[in-house]
Design brief:
88 residues, mainly alpha, 2 domains, 4 helices, 0% strand
């Protein structure tokens, strides 16, 4: 894939050229997190907060459903159901 915003890695220093021929670690880093990463320019790190908020919401919904299945709203059985939830 060639993206117009992704820059190709070209080492300029002879030592970096030698290192890139033997161990392409700088090329890997440049392509993974540097300007060679093929991602649109309007996508930034703030998208992570939205993903994390979505994951937290999903966890809360799932655990809420599980807790609602085990809780009894009867006055005499409520303590036993909470005790069951906490111990199991």
């Amino acid at each position: 894939m060639s993206f117009p915003w992704a820059q190709h890695y070209e080492p300029k220093h002879p030592v970096m050229k030698w290192l890139d021929d033997r161990l392409p670690l700088p090329r890997l880093i440049h392509g993974a997190v540097g300007p060679g990463y093929p991602v649109p320019s309007n996508l930034n790190y703030f998208w992570n907060f939205g993903v994390l908020a979505g994951v937290a919401l999903a966890i809360q919904i799932i655990t809420g459903i599980i807790l609602a299945m085990h809780y009894r709203a009867d006055g005499t059985l409520a303590f036993q159901s909470v005790e069951h939830i906490m111990r199991n």
